[in-house]
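Q: Got a minute? One more chain.
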Amino acid sequence: MALTLLICVIITALVFEYINGFHDSANVVATVVSTKVLTARTAVIYAGVLNAVGAFMGTHVASTIGTGIIDAEGVTQGLILCALLSAIIWNLITWYYGIPSSSSHALIGGLMGAAISKAGHQVVHFDGVAKKVLLPMISSPVLGFGVGLTFMIVILWLCSRSHPNTVNNRFRRLQLVSSGIIAISHGSNDAQKTMGIITMALVSYHTLPTFEVPYWVILGCALTMGLGTMAGGWRIIRTMGSKMIKLKPVHGFTAEMSSASIILTASHFGIPVSTTHIIATSIMGVGTTRGANALKLGIIGNIVLAWVLTIPVCMVIAAVLYRILPV
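A: Always. Here it is, folded:
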C-alpha cells in the first residue's frame, strides 16, 4: 500500500509539472508571440527545449520546497498527494479563465494546508515561509515593475535619436535571445519545485537517507516541464501577451530581460518565486512608459486578485482533501 501511494505521488507530481508547464508557458512565450517575432507554435517548442535546459541549473529551490516549508518529520505520502491535487485544481481553474496565477504559490499553499490539517500549525516553518515565500511574493512583483520600467527608460533614452522602425527591427532580433533566456530562467526555478516534492516523498518513504535530489528526478521533471510548455496554455498567453498591453519588440525584449535577471538571481539563492508575478509586473512596468492608458486595469485587477487568493485557497482545498480522502 505504501509503495502504491508513493508511485501515485510521483505520477501526480509529474502531472502537476506538466500542467505547470502549459499553465506557465505564457510567462515564457507571451511577449515573443505578441510582438510577432516568433509564431506561437515555434515559440512554445523553443521555450519547451530551453525550459528543460534550465531545470539542470541547480537544486537550491528544490531544497527550499522540500525542507523549508513544513517539518520533514510530519510529512506523509498522503499529505504530499493532497498538496499536489490542490495545486492542480487551482491551476486548472485559473487556466480555464485565462488568469495568470502562481503555480509555485499554489503548491506551497497546498503543502501548508495539508500539513496543518494533519498535525496543526506547529509543523509549518513560518519563519522560512515568511522569508522565502511571503517576502519575495511582495518584493518580486515590485522589482519586476521597477526593473522593467527603469530598463525601458534607459533603452528609450539610448535609442532616442533612432527611427522607431529601426529600433523595433533591431530588437526583433534581440528578442530571440531574450525569449530564450527567460525560458531558461523559468526552468531554473519552476521545474525545481516538483523536484523538491518528489524528493520529499522519497525521503518520507525512506528510499533516500537525506534530502538530495536524484538525477532521474531532475531529468524527469525537466522533460515533463518542457513537454508541458510545448503544449501551450493559449488562454493565458492571450491575457499576458495582448490583453494587458499591446507590445512591440523593444517592449518584449525589455520585459523578458528584466524578468530573467530577477528569476535567475532568485534561483541562485534558492528562493521559489512566482515567474508569473515577475513577468506580468515587468510587462506592466514597461507598459507605463507608453502612458497609463496603455495598461488595461480591469484585466490587471483580476490578475492581482488571483495572486492574493492563490495561497489561502490552495490551503483550504488541500486541508479539505486531506480530511475526505482515505490517505
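A: The mean pLDDT is 86.
Q: Perfect, thanks.
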